[in-house]
Specification:
Helices cover 3% and strands 44% of the residues. The protein is mostly beta strands. It folds into 3 domains: 128 residues, Immunoglobulin-like, CATH 2.60.40; 106 residues, Sandwich (Immunoglobulin-like); 126 residues, no CATH class.
Length: 390
């Protein structure tokens, strides 16, 4: 029902989904619904703890305004083979203002009498920070388990001088992500050293990440000719199909000017990409022998970090390859093939992408604070740090 759900802060597609409390910053949330008929979507904002479970706050505690407001900004697609309506919501807005920092979920519901299911049709997430602590972070390939081989290690220092923290060992909650992935994120690590007003997270083996490789890339910015990473584009009524070049497992570091898993909706001949970009079926192929004990999934921000059947690459015995077909809106995309062992929820880069210390990864660090007796996790500091050979 809902496609191309995006959250964009300050109209910058490379910006992490976090903005500063009490400033002019904002987040845009948009999605497409495959119909030119109007449908009434309403949204509900939920304040969450650091682990994305709902907090103990009431609505009046975390926002000014009321939930269950309709999305009032929408527009039909123009000259597309797939008819859709593009919906957009900006927060904060005239009806909604935020009072506290932390994690936020926006749940979208279809508010119509003939709806035969309950629950949200889509959920978007973002964070609001109040910068009350200082962060100094670094990442290195000289790790506590290897040097310039297959891992990268994150270190950081939290300076909370001037900010009231009674018991930093229990009140401060750090969360660390690699390229915004949720499957291999690290939470609630304890500091290596603690001195008055300062916490150091160094030489911590929990903060060692498999380095992976640079993301693979392709572009489907025009329906009339193949661009980067695309072998051919064909029209089989009623839709277009893009066949990507066949991929192979990577045995060496493969440098590319990727965007660490992000994607940009773009049609190079459009005046308004949001409503003029079309949808097509993208066909992925990974040539390699069948591997037992798990499944391969596509990953990148366009998959919402979900290991679901929609993004699974299924093995084709006849072709001796893993294949996946995903409907995507025109644009430029980063992706990888992650191997998820049976019984695990963490993807592995080694089988298809390899792990090479040179990989240019981004790491996002979020520092939450909950004092004793507190009812929610304040987001009091954030920093993005990048590993690069330059």
């Amino acid at each position: 029902m809902i496609h191309t759900l995006q959250t964009t802060v300050n109209e910058d597609w490379l910006h992490d989904d976090v903005f500063t409390l009490g400033t002019e910053e904002w987040v845009d949330i948009s999605f497409d619904h495959f119909s030119h008929d109007y449908h009434r979507f309403i949204y509900k904002i939920v304040h969450c703890n650091a682990d994305w479970t709902p907090s103990d706050l009431f609505e009046v505690d975390y926002m000014e305004g009321f939930n269950n407001q309709p999305i009032e900004e929408y527009e039909n697609s123009l000259n597309t083979t797939m008819l859709y309506t593009h919906y957009r919501l900006s927060l904060p807005n005239e009806e909604i203002q935020f009072k506290v920092s932390g994690n936020y979920r926006v749940e979208f519901y279809l508010d119509e009498e003939d709806v035969d299911f309950e629950g949200p049709v889509a959920v978007a997430c973002f964070r609001i920070v109040e910068p009350l602590v200082a962060l100094n972070a670094s990442v290195t390939s000289n790790t506590d388990i290897d040097t310039n081989l297959s891992h990268q290690q994150v270190s950081f220092v939290v300076n909370y001088n001037g900010y009231n923290v009674v018991d930093p060992m229990t009140e401060i909650k750090p969360y660390v992500y690699q390229n915004n992935r949720t499957d291999n994120s690290v939470a609630l690590v304890k500091p290596t050293y603690a001195t008055p007003g300062r916490l150091e997270y160094v030489h911590n083996t929990n903060l060692i990440f498999p380095a992976g490789n640079d993301y693979r890339r392709f572009e489907i910015i025009n329906m009339h000719y193949a661009t980067q990473g695309v072998d051919k584009i064909e029209f089989f009524a009623p839709y277009f199909h893009a066949t990507l070049y066949a991929d192979k497992p990577r045995r060496n570091y493969s440098f590319d000017q990727d965007h660490d898993g992000r994607y940009l909706i773009r049609y190079n001949l459009a005046e308004d990409t949001d409503i003029e970009a079309d949808y097509l079926f993208a066909h992925f192929r990974l040539d390699m022998p069948h591997r037992k004990g798990g499944r391969f999934y596509l990953t990148g921000e366009f998959t919402y970090n979900d290991f679901t059947p929609t993004y699974e690459a299924v093995y084709n015995e006849q072709e001796q390859a893993y294949e996946a077909t995903v409907m995507l809106k025109q644009g430029a995309y980063d992706f990888m093939y992650l191997w998820v062992p049976d019984g695990s929820t963490t993807g592995q880069t080694a089988p298809a992408e390899g792990n090479f210390y040179e990989a240019e990864n981004e790491y996002q660090i979020y520092i939450y604070h909950r004092p004793f007796g507190g009812r929610y996790d304040r987001l009091v500091g954030t920093q993005q740090v990048r590993f690069s050979q330059e």
